[in-house]
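Box 4.2: Ligand-aware structure prediction
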Amino acid sequence: MSSIQIRNVTKRFGDFTAVDNLTLDIEEGEFAALLGPSGCGKTTTMNMIAGIEDLTKGSILFDEQELSGTRIQDRNIGFVFQNYAIFTHLSVYKNLSYGLEVKKVDKGEIERRVKAMADRMSITHRLDQPAASLSVNEMQKLAIGRSAIVEPRIFLLDEPLSNLDAGFRAYMRAELKVLQHEFGQTMIYVTHDQIEAMSLADKIAIIDQGKLMQYGTPLDIYNSPDNRFVANFIGSPRMNLIDGELREEKDQLKLMVSGGAEIKLQGQVKSEFASDGKVQSGSFGIRPQDIYFGDQRSDSDIKMHGTVEVLERVGPKRLAYLHVLETMFIAFDDQDRLKVGDKVPFYLPSEKSMAFDLASGRRLGGVAK
Ligand code: ATP
């Protein structure tokens, strides 16, 4: 088990920058997720940690020890890919024992560890069968078990659950978390699925176009996104965002949105507003679960109106799609009170609202009134 330091790492392919000055510190035993849209540089980062790709600039260290020049096989890394590298012609047992045999582990110990891992993965009844006969789900368990059994210093998982059906994915997510806890291994997990990252990781690095957007615990990132990209990427359903023009009038900062409406902003936002007479585009954000219907709870809450376009059942609640100011807001109708076509008032708690500078994406702080 090791800590990982990624320091100012850049990777270029010709003129194209796939990873741009990335710095990340992953603690020993931590489960870190690299999260971002397709093509943002997650796999390239993994490959550089594994030693499969060279770095253009910067350095990667394990336990503060520089890795450049250390061969892949000497890095003691467990790697699980989305297309699991299994020896399909060998038995399940052989697949599990292979890594231990290469390491010249004692025969009795191999037998013990293979049995324990097979039990853990519920594939004991398959040990003598060829791996080719396994189902897709069992194959994925085997791929993870095969890497975990050698207890590597660092475990890298690149979208390992993407081929699985939804139910099994949820099961494997829990299983992976248990495994990580049991072995206490440092894990880096690549995914474009924010739900997977939120439910598994101790810390999440959100990456866009090769750049780190934010690194923090799932709760920090969810409650306190640094920028509009993170606010929009994290959360299901996504944050409601409405763009407009920031204006300061009589000491009051406002977001003028299309349709002539205005949202009054105050607090930190105001002090960060570059009040130099230039038009500045901004964005206002509120999470669906923070919107409420019924009686206003606080004078500072923002009142809006919207027309209910669609109601969608999700368990005991319904998602309400509201047409608001030429955009669509999503809210939760938890008491089945709304009807399609209703024009309803709703409220946005000021302390839960956020504002962003549209050009830089940077968060402007809390919003009120
Ligand atoms: P995905 O989830 O789709 O795998 P990713 O976030 O893992 O995406 P990478 O595979 O790291 O993204 O790729 C980042 C960018 O670098 C992409 O635009 C990709 O086309 C480019 N890229 C990756 N490898 C190479 C290469 N060997 N040569 C040129 N461009 C590359």
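In the box above, the bound molecule is adenosine-5'-triphosphate. The chain has two domains: 4-86+134-223, 239-357.
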